[in-house]
Amino acid sequence: MTPVILLTGFLGSGKTTLLQRLLRHPSMEGTAVLVNEFGEVGLDHHLLDQIDENVVLLKSGCICCTVRGEVADALANLHSMRTRGEISFERVVIETTGLADPYPVLQTLTAHPVLRSHFSNGGVLTTVDTVNADIQVTHRAEAVRQIAAADRIVLTKTDLAAPQEEEALRQRLLRVNPAANIITSMSSVETILADFGPLSFFTSSKSATQNHICGPGCGHDAPTKCDSLTDQHRHHDETFGVTSFSLEIEGGIDWTMFGTWLTLLLHKYGDRIFRVKGILAIEGEALPIAIHGVQHLIHAPTHMDHWPKGMDQSGSKSSHLIFILEDIEPEKIRRSFHAFMNVDTVKAAAR
Ligand SMILES: Nc1nc2c(ncn2[C@@H]2O[C@H](COP(=O)(O)OP(=O)(O)OP(=O)(O)O)[C@@H](O)[C@H]2O)c(=O)[nH]1
């Protein structure tokens, strides 16, 4: 499977600037990039060979393609060219337009009858303009969806913002998407790409606990400790009804029951579940299973070969689930989980 990294972010937030840096890095050799226009990326001086009207080979060993129409068609075209031996690549980066909703592209990767067998979600990288994001997030649903979809957020233009502005923005972004790992564009390319993928929240060196946002400016109380479902914590950003919350369940859970519950949940509420990610301790299994889904779709679960740091302390295993929801009361999901999975009573977490 060829991983596809989605590079998204609001208009002028620095996607192209970041893409140019990424493409210059040796570790990105062998990347095929999908953009709207060659010109936008300013690649002229990198151009090596025009393969066809929409595809050029770059000096860096990368391929650049323009998307005329559907992203799915552009990906299918790349795949066919590779099958015919005309080009080779080992990963794809798609730079969306600044007003794009990233979810349809993610769905294409999992739902398209042909593409789903050849391409996988390699993670969503979202650029956020530190100077302008507050107003964009307040007024533009696309900006919120781009942040909600992110596995990693790259704050740009931090050089133009005061440290307290940056900190306030970080808190706001984490209220929309507590699973996102936030770094600045000052970071090295190695840092930007380190452990990057749909589960980077769980697997990056920054553990879930470190990334947790309770603290000054959070505006929430500490999560309530419960008997079995130990930690249910939610964050709500007033904008566009986007809420995120997490569940931590002590001990192993029944995989079949969980699969049925999640299928039913997504069937009913998939349109409004932007993201679900989790690392699950399964009854009878020594190692965890990672799941991640986008709206109605659940990607194939992955058997992990180790427990992420800090999640298997002193042998007491627990499952972690994170949801990013639009206009759904988290309590509904918590109650349904509780009833279906037959776990002990849970107190609602204080907000
Ligand atoms: N000072 C500063 N300027 C930046 C930074 N990142 C990007 N810029 C500038 O912001 C402007 C927009 O950057 P682009 O990379 O074109 O942004 P984009 O998201 O690709 O823009 P669209 O494709 O129009 O949505 C350019 O003038 C960049 O030089 C940054 O970290 N600091």
Number of strands: 16
- The DSSP helix count reads 12
CATH architectural designation of the largest domain: 3-Layer(aba) Sandwich
Q: Structural class given helices, strands, pairing?
A: alpha/beta
Q: Which residues sit in consecutive blocks of at least 5 with pLDDT less than 50?
A: 205-233, 345-351
Organism: Pacificibacter marinus
InterPro entries: CobW-likC_sf, CobW-like_C, CobW/HypB/UreG_nucleotide-bd, P-loop_NTPase, Zinc-reg_GTPase_activator
Domain CobW C-terminal: 242-341
Function: Zinc chaperone that directly transfers zinc cofactor to target proteins, thereby activating them. Zinc is transferred from the CXCC motif in the GTPase domain to the zinc binding site in target proteins in a process requiring GTP hydrolysis.
